[in-house]
Known about the structure:
Elements: H1 2-17, H2 19-45, H3 51-81, H4 89-106
Helix pairs in contact: 2-3, 2-4
Amino acid sequence: MDLLMDLIATLSRWSRSHLYDISLAIMATLLVLFGPSINAWVQRSIASLNFVLRTLIFVLVCAVGYGLALVYLTPFLAHGLGYFTNYTLAPVLLLVFFVIGVMADRR
């Protein structure tokens, strides 16, 4: 049991030093998974507008919206994950990536 706890603590310490990159990977994967749904909702919402205005809004949502979400939400996620202890961070990250994998498989 001590070997398992040491392994978890070692993985958590390593993960903690790469927390920003891990958070960026999580955010990018979530945007890839939910991007088509968001795009479809935006397209339905702006379908009655002029072509030029629709195109402008769609470009703003995709380029600016997703870019800002990736840049500004990643530090919040990294900060939130930083609250986990060395005995909980690695299992939580494994669970998060497992859930994201299941969601990706179902889409």
